Amino acid sequence: RIGFVFQDYALFPHLTVTGNIEYGLRVKRLPGSQRSARVKELLALFELEELRKRSIQELSGGERQRVALARALAPEPFLLLLDEPFSALDYGLRRRLRRELRDLQERLGFTTIFVTHQQEEALSLSERLAVMNNGRIIQMGTAVEVYNNPAHPFVAKFLGDANLIPCHVETTAGKLTINPQAGHSFLHPATRGEEPGTYLLMIRPEDLVITSGEAIFEGQLITLEYLGYGYYLEVKIAKELVLKINVSKEQQGLHKGQFLKLTPKKGKIKLIPINS
Q: Is residue 222 assigned to a domain?
């Protein structure tokens, strides 16, 4: 048995909330007493008791989403497929329903395949995550594995912001000499049997720090945005190369036009082969 939640929910407009939830149970030809008990259980689970007699047109987006989930779960599927079910909702409601779905899955123990273009949803909901491009899976793993060790430039950029800097790598006695475009060369341990050649040096914005000492990159601050919890910066280090940085709100003295020295946090770089 497979449950399916459509992107637009595809609820039956001529049925009430109860009628929609009960639909799959009627298809299974369950006795009326069993249908009533299951519907009552799901109405309570999704906090829909007071809405049970309402038509679909009278519901908010979040209420419709809960009805769609309840309808999909009513026949007790082994697998639940969700096609971007939160795409039409505002940010706050998406976050709340995401937590509710994760709690529900853990409590009831069903498997879920969740399709999304939202990186935050992919990272927060998944036990295993697959990134697809042009109909092909290009990387699969846990959310932490895929985020921290992208095997392809598309993966790096799809899951969060990423600085991708062309560089040349040389190997000597178990160490890498990394020569980034528009930056100073530096040494790094060889951890994955890297061969000499041309790579993309990936550094996440949260893994770049401003320093007053030796630095890998230097450039002019061209974008400064206050986000409440911190600042988002863009630093131009070459004519066609801009680095993105996230810093905490404790960072003082920033102003557009100033020159900054930047270096990655220890162990927080990733080399992606150009031809990956």
A: yes
